[in-house]
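Side project, low priority. Logging it here so it doesn't get lost.
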Amino acid sequence: MEILRTEHLKKYYGRGEVCVKALDGVDFAVQKGEFVSIVGTSGSGKSTLLNMLGGLDRPTSGQVIVDGKDIFTLKEEALTIFRRRKIGFIFQSFNLVPVLNVYENIVLPIELDGNPVDQKFVNGVIETLGLESKIYALPSQLSGGQQQRVAIARALAAKPVIVLADEPTGNLDSVTSQDVLELIKTTGERFEQTMVMITHNEEIAQMADRMVRIEDGRIVKSDKGGGFYA
């Protein structure tokens, strides 16, 4: 079952001789339960693509279809609600609310939407990520790896149809990076979560089920992943 699809997706900045084609006609699809990595050098268009997939920026032309909905037909308020309900985000900067404890950060998107928390599901996510002893701690009391675990839990808690990870190990050391990546893969499999991750590191990218390469705003290659980061 297809969860995500782009059609002729373009994002241009400027015009004429100074036109920058950040995305130049991207056709891309992700199946339910798939873990896909998007790899590319700085300036290749991977971050722009992730922003489009998550509805954080609007394209020059083309479509992004998430769970059967062309998200850019939605007005801003409706898009914000759709994004909160359907898309989870994991950022390299964690983006935790400093005055909220771990549990409060995890359930924040659900409460913002006015929905009841599925306590059994959230507890399962917390347990899988090894955060049981930290639920009352503030972000400032956690290590970088622990903060990223909280960010993963927050992304999963609302049961989104897809999770988008933006260089999720960019602020972590190599050992912690490996732990976090293994947790992303494990939680994705356990909770049958569809995930798309961007990275500049091909070793990391190979942990995914499929690795997609982007260059100069175009997808140039797609390979089976499944490797291990060491």
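Brief comment: Helices lie at 46-53, 76-86, 102-112, 119-128, 144-157, 174-190, 202-205.
Revisit when time allows.
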